[in-house]
Amino acid sequence: xxxxxxxxxxxxxxxxxxxxxxxxxxxxxxxxxxxxxxxxxxxxxxxxxxxxxxxxxxxxxxxxxxxxxxxxxxxxxxxxxxxxxxxxxxxxxxxxxxxxxxxxxxxxxxxxxxxxxxxxxxxxxxxxxxxxxxxxxxxxxxxxxxxxxxxxxxxxxxxxxxxxxxxxxxxxxxxxxxxxxxxxxxxxxxxxxxxxxxxxxxxxxxxxxxxxxxxxxxxxxxxxxxxxxxxxxxxxxxxxxxxxxxxxxxxxxxxxxxxxx
Amino acid sequence: xxxxxxxxxxxxxxxxxxxxxxxxxxxxxxxxxxxxxxxxxxxxxxxxxxxxxxxxxxxxxxxxxxxxxxxxxxxxxxxxxxxxxxxxxxxxxxxxxxxxxxxxxxxxxxxxxxxxxxxxxxxxxxxxxxxxxxxxxxxxxxxxxxxxxxxxxxxxxxxxxxxxxxxxxxxxxxxxxxxxxxxxxxxxxxxxxxxxxxxxxxxxxxxxxxxxxxxxxxxxxxxxxxxxxxxxxxxxxxxxxxxxxxxxxxxxxxxxxxxxxxxxxxxx
Lengths: 261, 268
Known about the structure:
The complex is a heterodimer of chains A (261) and B (268). Chain A is built from 9 helices and 10 strands. With 261 residues, chain A is of the alpha/beta class. Chain A has a single domain (11-44, 57-258), classed as Rossmann fold. In chain A, α3 (121-133) crosses α4 (149-161). The N and C termini of chain A lie far apart (49 Å). With 268 residues, chain B is an all-alpha fold. Chain B has a single domain (2-263), classed as ABC transporter involved in vitamin B12 uptake, BtuC (Orthogonal Bundle), CATH 1.10.3470. Chain B is built from 13 helices and no strands. Chain B has helices at 2-6, 9-34, 38-58, 62-82, 88-109, 116-122, 130-149, 151-159, 161-166, 171-201, 204-212, 216-241, 245-263. In chain B, α2 (9-34) packs across α10. The chains are: A alpha/beta (261), B mainly alpha (268). The interface between A and B is medium-sized, with 36 and 29 residues.
């Protein structure tokens, strides 16, 4: 297992296997993500992408294999949790929760180290700063539930980045966004990745915009179907096998989904 | 007229109990509504019937037996539902009915006269003793201390548990702490409104606040006002209209909620 070192991978998975009862959810997934890389995870629904992210974060115990983030095994991430930013799928939070955008960003600073301690003035200031960086400072006092999907995603991005993480994990951040908002979000993410020197691991169904930003793509449907540079993955016959349809069809389906109704 | 009412020692104690339980319930209700645990409150109150029945037939303190049952039911519900095999409401539905059934079966097997059962089912705040007020104060202090110390963390897990967990918050201990606080609050509320209506106090104040506010700070304050105002208002109503205190308190709180529906729809 790697330890924290400049040359070691930021994300490491080796023969990661997950079973839920008799069902094999993930089978022998092996990959690495290096410092400063943006890697996209694609694959059909139910292919195990979210399970993979949750396993890397230590929220699911693997049946076999091992994984590590920032040199720490996934089941003992305590010391590096503050260096990991995470945006879960949008269905994990309550959209009608009575809370302002600014308060949502503050939640990004809560950890076992802030237990029994109020946030310091400097920490509250860093929340405003991060909202400013993602272009959402003017939304700080707005109810989170009143924001558009794109604005909510920017606020959640600020929440994930307010700790100044070294690694950012995102699970389908584009879900429910229109094409323009998807593109804006991806461009902003790419810009922030470059300026903060972030390592990014991103699950998305939006293959086209992911291919434009990511250094590498992993295509997963229970097992790893293909792994490589975006063009290499998109032209691979294994992509067709994973999705059980061609990339052209995927692109068209994606475009249909994106057309305003 | 209010001065006449307060000239009685039992009314002074009842008023103090109403203020304390109104405060306690509205603070706990804030998280019950945000974390969508309303049905769990109903389940805990009814499951406690099994423990109360054990207390009545064995001569042990029914409050402590009921509390032990309520806490065990709350923690077991949380644990079983967290393992992901069954939904929370399914587990509560089973415990709810089983707890009541166990209590009824036990009381009918050990034939005897249990005059306390009526006040436990429907509450009788007018009979609250000084010892019960002290117990209420202790429970209130413990629960409010827990919530006060971990308010921001409880808020974070209510909003987005997955992100809180990944961020390093001790989600399970906080969640089970909240369930224990709920169970203890339900048990002290039984004195005020009884098993049948106790869960209402864990929903109506915060639901009223939720309805009228767009920010959790305002929601918290409105929940507190509804909880205390509803308890005290209902008690006064029960005195002047000669109504059972538990029913009057719940009806008065429900009236406040209905007024909130007329005021402004929540559009978020």
